[in-house]
Amino acid sequence: MIALQETPLYKKRCACSSIYLSEEFETEQQEWNPSIVIDIYSHTPPLSNAAMKVASKISGFRNFADNWDSYGAEKLSESAIVNTLSFIRVIDAHGIPVYFTAPGPNGEIVVELRKGIYEAEVYFNADNSNEVLIYEGDTCISEGMLDHLLPRILELF
After folding, report:
1. Burial class (CB in 10 A: 0-12, 13-18, 19+), 49
2. Can you name the residues that pair with 56 across neighbouring β-strands?
C-alpha cells in the first residue's frame, strides 16, 4: 500500500483502490481499468497549513489506547489512520478543506467536509473499508464507497 508520495522525475500513475493509492504502475506496462486513476508528477504538492494541522491531529490518534473514551472505545486502527491521511492529502491537493475530523468508538475515523449546502461524511473503518455519505441540505444524495464517490466529492467541494 502506498500513500501519495514523491515519485521519480518521470510521470507515473497510481491506481486508487478503496481510498488509498495501492499499487504503483507505469501506464505502458499495465492494462488495468481502475475506477480512479490519479496522475502524480515529480513532487506532490506540500500540505497546506490547515491540512498539516488536521494531519497532525489524525496522527495523534495513534496515542489513543483501548477505552480512550472511558466507554470501551477501541484503539484507533492503523489502517484507518493511514487511509485518512492519504485522503487528506488528495483533497488538500484539490483545495478542499476538512471541516471536522474525529475518532470513533470502533477504531474508525470520520472526516467531514462542508461547502454551501453540501456536506460529506467520510468514514475510514478499522477493517480497511470506508463509507461516504453526501448530503444536500438534510437530504442524503449519495451513499457508497470512496473509490466510487471521490469524483463527486472533488466536484462538489
Report:
1. exposed
2. none
DSSP state of 19: T
Spans of the chain, pLDDT less than 70: 1-44
> Rounded to an integer, what is the distance from CA 25 to the centroid of its chain?
20
Task: Write out pLDDT tens, residues 142-154.
Answer: 999 999 999 999 9
Pick from 29, 8, 53, 16: which is nearest to 153 by CA? 16
Residue 113 near residue 157, CB atoms below 8 Å: yes
Please choose, from the candidates 19, 1, 2, 16, the residue with its C-alpha nearest in 3D space to the C-alpha of residue 144. 19
pTM of the model: 0.73
The pLDDT of residue 43: 60
Judge whether 156 and 118 are in contact, CB under 8 Å.
yes
| Residue pair 83/19 in contact by the 8 Å Cβ criterion | yes
Among the listed residues 154, 128, 127, 152, the one whose alpha carbon sits nearest the alpha carbon of residue 140: 152
Give the C-alpha distances (Å, rounded to integers) separating 83 from 36, 106, 132: 16, 16, 13
pLDDT for 45 equals 77
d(CA 157, CA 154): 6
